[in-house]
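Memo to structure team: turn this sequence into structure tokens by end of day. - J.P.
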Amino acid sequence: MNIEFNNPHALWLALLIPVYLFLSRRRVTTAAIRYPSVRNLKRLPRSFRQRCRVLLPALRTAALLLLVIVLARPLRRIETRELPSQGIGIALLVDRSGSMGDPNNKLPYNGKLELRFTIARDVLKRFVEGDGKELKGRPNDLIGLCTFATYPQMDYPFSLDHAALVEVTKTMAAEKPFLDAYGNPTDNIDEAAPMTDERGRPLVDAWGRRVPRTNPMQFTALKSAIEYTARRLALLEDDLKRPGAGARAYNLKSKVMLLLTDGEPTVADARQAPEYPDEDTIKLLTNAGIKVYFIQILSHERYRERPDGTVEVIVPRQGNLFAQMQARMQADQEAALANRAIEEARKLARRTGGEHFLATTGDELRKIYSRIDEMERSDVGGRTVFSHEERYGPYLAAALVLLAAESVLAMTWLRRAP
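Reply from structure team:
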């Protein structure tokens, strides 16, 4: 409790208490009954009750001290910080498709291998709260959290309550890639039910292995996720401008979308091709004034970045020439898809005024968020307001109790005659 006094000069009255006690002892009183002499009575030993009469001036002194404190008006100061009135609207859009939680595709982060989705959660927490090193935190910004796989969803609405947002990030999880025999998601391929044909027979691949049943919720719908989040950001600005907001209205300096994904979209459009963000998506973003920072996190063991910004697939050595050629063909096809995704991401970021980033380790991803944190700052501090609560009540009550105790004792057990 932070106690202070509204009238601290009243405490000087405590210096008058010793004067009052001195004068009260020298006060001449006239007895109701006159005795010829009390010389012999003074030689008698003092009783326990007489010795306890010292309690009466002690109680009076304590009560007077408490009354002086009451006159000084003790207060408890309550610090309240007003919400900032200006900042950036930031939409954190995170890919939670099955590949983000693939245990066979971990990345180095802080000296150990971690799942990509685990890395994403930790970096988002540091970005929002700050880590005291590279990331400063975003205390003045309205931040919302969206995740997407086959369908996007709003995990946390735009708010300045970042502590609650961090708690939500701890509960996020990537979609599991398979379905078991009961239709429940699982990440264990041995528990996955097999795909079947029209006759109910299990399907097998070219090597004779059964094809597991995939979870239809674990794919990557990139286009719909971007459009969903863009509409949320646009609605946020409209909501802040609604009538009745008054002095508590929040002014958005800018609107930013931080998109983190691990590759190309896997949800097909009407042409059965991967559904990339198109001109309609870019128009929706530019009309709403939303800047997109597009971050792609790829495997450092699978992809290598070229000087021109494209990537190539790393092909391990095979046992024979035929296997090597087949692996190279598959790698070229995979690289073509990855470079197409990078090209589309760069176009989207460039057209909206943002930037594209490519990370192959968790440490690189943290540095990317640190760079974005430096580029998009809103150092508009909120005002600190102090309110006070009167705290003289306990002191006044204690003083009254002490005065009552003194009066009762003086009239009963510690009474004096004459």
